[in-house]
């Protein structure tokens, strides 16, 4: 597996861990149970500050090269790139709404549950398309020169939650991930 694709694949595994935590909180919200609002805002903060800024642009760089080599992928790539923008906007909207709720603003529980469920399912579907269709196609179609250009242009940033150094603002979220792994 190509090293860049390997890094993106690793990111997807980590994103899935957070989506699963988010799903648990969404289920609590739907049931009317206690919800860890801070955990939800921290998850959305991570999505806004790492995948939306580094991971997705790196994918888009690969997909741009892929689209140049295989025009048949254009519609799917355009859809995936559009998903990146949609997910980024949704993450900001969800985070903002949960922060307002933490400050005693009144929102529809059902509406928030719907937004969260849609975000989670759309993100998982998005990852599946990249993993099952676009990444294998990129590895098959792109040549060494393409990968050289991609490696030179790619943005590299240590993951603030899953990287070598844990960013202080994500310590509680990291503990939640460890606890969720211990419970399974």
How would you describe what is shown here?
By secondary structure, the protein is mainly alpha-helical. It has a single domain, classed as Four Helix Bundle (Hemerythrin (Met), subunit A) (Up-down Bundle). Helix content is 79%, strand content 0%. It is built from 7 helices and no strands. Helix 1 packs antiparallel against helix 2 and helix 3 packs antiparallel against helix 4. The longest helix is centred in the last third of the chain and has 33 residues. The radius of gyration is 17 Å and the shape is globular. The two termini are 29 Å apart. The model has no long low-confidence stretch (mean pLDDT 94).
CATH architecture level-2 label:
Up-down Bundle
CATH topology: Four Helix Bundle (Hemerythrin (Met), subunit A)
How many structural domains does the protein architecture include? 1
Per DSSP E runs of 2 or more residues, the count of β-strands stands at: 0
Low-confidence stretches: none
Could you report the average pLDDT, rounded to the nearest whole number? 94
Fraction in beta strands: under 5%
Helix content: over 70%
Query: Treating each run of at least 4 consecutive H or I residues as one helix, how many helices?
Result: 7
CATH class: Mainly Alpha
């Amino acid at each position: 597996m190509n090293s860049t694709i390997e890094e993106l694949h690793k990111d997807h595994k980590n994103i899935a861990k957070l989506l699963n935590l988010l799903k648990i909180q969404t289920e609590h919200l739907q049931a009317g149970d206690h919800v860890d609002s801070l955990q939800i805002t921290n998850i959305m903060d991570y999505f806004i500050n790492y995948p939306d800024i580094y991971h997705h642009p790196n994918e888009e760089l690969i997909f741009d090269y892929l689209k140049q080599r295989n025009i048949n992928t254009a519609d799917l790539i355009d859809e995936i790139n559009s998903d990146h923008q949609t997910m980024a906007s949704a993450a900001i909207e969800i985070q903002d709404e949960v922060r307002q709720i933490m400050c005693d603003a009144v929102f529809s529980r059902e509406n928030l549950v719907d937004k969260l469920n849609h975000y989670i399912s759309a993100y998982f579907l998005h990852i599946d398309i990249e993993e099952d269709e676009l990444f294998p196609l990129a590895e098959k179609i792109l040549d060494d020169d393409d990968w050289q250009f991609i490696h030179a242009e790619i943005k590299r940033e240590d993951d603030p939650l899953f990287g070598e150094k844990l960013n202080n603002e994500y310590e509680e979220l990291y503990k939640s991930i460890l606890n969720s792994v211990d419970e399974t």
